[in-house]
Amino acid sequence: MSVARFWRKQVQRYNLVGTHCKSCDEYFYPPRNMCPTCRRNGKIESYKFNGDGEVISFTVIRTAAVGFEHQTPYILAIVQLKEGPKLTTQISCGIDEIYLGMKVKPVFRKLGDGGEKGMIYYGTKFIAAE
Amino acid sequence: MKTGIVSYGAYIPKYRIKVEEIARVWGDDAESLSKGLKVDEKSVPDIDEDAATIAVESARSAIARCNIDPTRIGAVYTGSESHPYAVKPTSTIVAEAIGATPQLTAADFEFACKAGTAAVQACMGLAASKQIDLGLAIGSDVSQGAPGDALEYTAAAGGVSMLIGTNPDEIIANIEDTYSFTTDTPDFWRREGMPYPEHGGRFTGEPGYFKHVTGAAEGLMSKLNTTPKDYDYAVFHQPNGKFPSRVAKMLGFTTEQILPGLVVPKLGNTYSGSCLMGIAATLDQAKPGDCIFATAFGSGAGADAFSFEVTENIEKSRNKVATIEEMLQNPTYIDYSIYAKHKDKLRRA
Ligand SMILES: [Zn+2]
Predict the structure, then answer these.
(1) Distance between B125 CA and the closest CA of chain A, angstroms
(2) Residue A36 contacts by C-beta under 8 Å, 6 or more apart in sequence?
(3) Rounded to an integer, what distance in angstroms lies between the CA atom of residue B159 and that of residue B13?
(4) Tell me: the pLDDT tens digits for A8-37?
(5) Is B113 a catalytic residue?
(6) Domain assignments of chain B as residue spans, ordered by start
(7) Nearest residue, CB atoms, A15 vs list B46, B48, B99
(8) Which CATH architecture has domain B3-171+324-342?
(9) Is A51-128 a domain of CATH 2.40.50?
(10) Of these four, A53, A113, B157, B349, which has the most CB atoms within 10 Å of its CB?
(11) What is the ipTM metric for this complex?
């Protein structure tokens, strides 16, 4: 990932900032500037999710992409936020601790880096909410 | 103008390694080490945690505790000896991740284990002179001890954030005064590009820790015309359990005064977070009217002493976020090999 590409989406990654359509009350993450339901009649506002959600699907990654080898095995999951949007994220917990329906909350973690000389990418992962 | 702590927050990673497990690898005598250091185990960061992520988590906790609007923060200063970048501030990452940007000043501080309290003093100055509304001072570290070195038994991970302000309706602990004692003493250092610090060895306790901590502590009490009896609690920098206990005795403080803030036996030395962690643990149980004495120490060397008086606002800040005691409960223990991987001492070829 390029430095510029990451940086443009940094705020939404750091703070789970998405959008909300006031016309139909739908929430979007990542943020959308146009409501697909209301189209031109949509009233889009910025919305910060507090990140409470639930695991609705997950997989254990044992053969990782370049740069993630030292993290295996790790869990990649689809989390549904309580407002509705679904996002793909890493869950920081043991591979024997995860289950469908697990309540999660966001944490600030290193997502990766561009090698020893490259920039460090930070953002949101999820952990069990207890 | 009086300044004080408006809120505080801490973060401790969930992993721990026991002193006995490290001793097993290096063939040291675990029992005599634990007894000598008065440390049983230390915290270890997760593989994706560093001083910046820990700083962010502690800052978010401080904001959540007292429901602070982050845009009020006019300065973010992060003290650490393990900033993730050699060049590029940790504090901008924190400021962005708590939603305090862009109208603020930010910089990183370094002064071994007392960079966090130096940041508190800088925020006090800016807040007192009305340059800023609130200042965020952080001490956060993922400290490294070289494999097999004495420091490896205690070098831990954790961070504490303090929000400093002047509004009496918000302040949970008044900072009555601060006093520092600083000299050029080469007791501990790390050169650019080197992964592990070097230290002057056993002899450095006297000219380093003890001289500076007593210098700052006595200086502050003489300035305020107080004695150890005027304080309900005391906190001293905790590189191990032995040093703070000994310096407390030297100064005339009792074991009862330091015990609530003595977190090092189950946590290890969180460096820039160490003294602030002790203050946070003490605030977790202090009552309105209680007086807290604290002295941080940083090798190199210097000490910052503080005198706090807890206000009735502290009651409003309770039970909003986890206490230090709660964060120390139910850790996940790991062995030396997993620890080595977490600390990047062991890498896949
Ligand atoms: Zn809509």
Answers:
(1) 30
(2) none
(3) 9
(4) 888 888 999 999 999 999 999 999 999 999
(5) yes
(6) 3-171+324-342, 173-315
(7) B99
(8) 3-Layer(aba) Sandwich (3.40)
(9) yes
(10) B157
(11) 0.94
